[in-house]
Write a structure and sequence with these properties.
291 residues, alpha/beta, Alpha/beta knot, 3 domains, 15% strand
Length: 291
């Protein structure tokens, strides 16, 4: 999958520049492979950074991502998707986010999508037929890299997973509600279950918004500086170092002098030391495997 995406990205370059850009990209990826052996980067990070680099050297190879979100409460997404970075990404044509109301695929006049559990028990379960009808209809129109169900039972979402999904083009996300969805949907349609944490929410909508935000911000062209995402917390198994801006002196609290020195090498060294220190103190489990 990744090799096919990489090839498609390269072939979208202007033809006269293919050789030069490919050679430059190969040098870049070899550098990151070597770097990964010295630090905490892994293969997912390397490919993600490679993708960022390819798109940065030629803006014509930006590829639009499509995210289809299946929900019974589409209005819940008005806030996160109509402001800030996600709004900018949609306006720039870098991502298309579609909210599909599962009720539109219900089979009765009341648009019912839930029912009581077989075997008894508390809580309603989302019915198989409306969801299946919705998924099958969308699959007739698009080919999806993954059909995701947001569930507390799923694989725990993290930065490495966000990197991986940021290079996909077509994603479908199903948001459950109530007591969950009919198990037959999970068995026959879902290709990946993802959890944003070890807790239960009222529905999958908030989880889907978190997932979408985390991957869309990684798309080349979304942030004003694509490389900004490369220095985020967790990208190299570390938390981000402290950051400062003006004023230099606020109530006797001053910015560290090293950051004003102009010595890029020493600044990067300081930042790495602070990132390691902060990670050991605040998230020691992230460093346990390294020691």
């Amino acid at each position: 999958m990744r090799s096919n995406i990489c090839l498609e990205v390269v072939m979208r370059c202007n033809r006269p520049l293919i050789i030069m850009q490919t050679c430059s990209a190969l040098v870049y990826i070899i550098t990151f492979v070597y770097y990964s052996r010295l630090s905490r980067s892994n293969s997912e990070n390397i490919f993600f950074k490679f993708n960022i680099y390819l798109c940065k050297i030629n803006s014509s190879i930006y590829i639009e991502m499509r995210i289809d979100i299946l929900t019974i409460f589409p209005e819940m997404f008005d806030g996160p998707f109509k402001h800030s970075i996600l709004k900018r990404a949609q306006e720039r044509g870098l991502v298309e986010i579609n909210l599909i109301n599962i009720r539109d695929y219900a089979t009765d006049k009341h648009k019912r999508v839930d029912d009581y559990q077989y075997g008894g028990g508390s809580g309603m379960v989302m019915m198989v037929e409306p969801i299946a009808n919705c998924i099958e209809d969308l699959k007739l129109k698009n080919t999806y890299n993954e059909i995701i169900y947001m569930s507390p039972d799923g694989e725990l979402f993290g930065q490495q997973m966000a990197n991986r999904y940021s290079i996909f083009q077509n994603l479908m996300i199903l948001c459950g509600h109530y007591k969950g969805i009919d198990e037959r949907i999970r068995e026959h349609f879902i290709t990946k279950e993802i959890s944003i944490g070890n807790y239960v929410l009222s529905g999958g909508e908030l989880g889907a918004a978190v997932f979408a935000d985390a991957i869309v911000r990684l798309l080349p062209g979304v942030l004003n500086d694509e490389t900004s995402a490369l220095s985020d917390s967790f990208q190299d198994g570390l938390l981000s170092p402290p950051a400062y801006t003006r004023p230099y002196n606020f109530k006797s609290m001053k910015v560290p002098d090293i950051l004003l020195s102009g010595n890029d090498k020493e600044i990067e060294k300081w930042r790495m030391e602070k990132a390691i220190e902060r990670t050991k103190v605040r998230r020691p489990e992230m460093t346990d495997d390294e020691e």
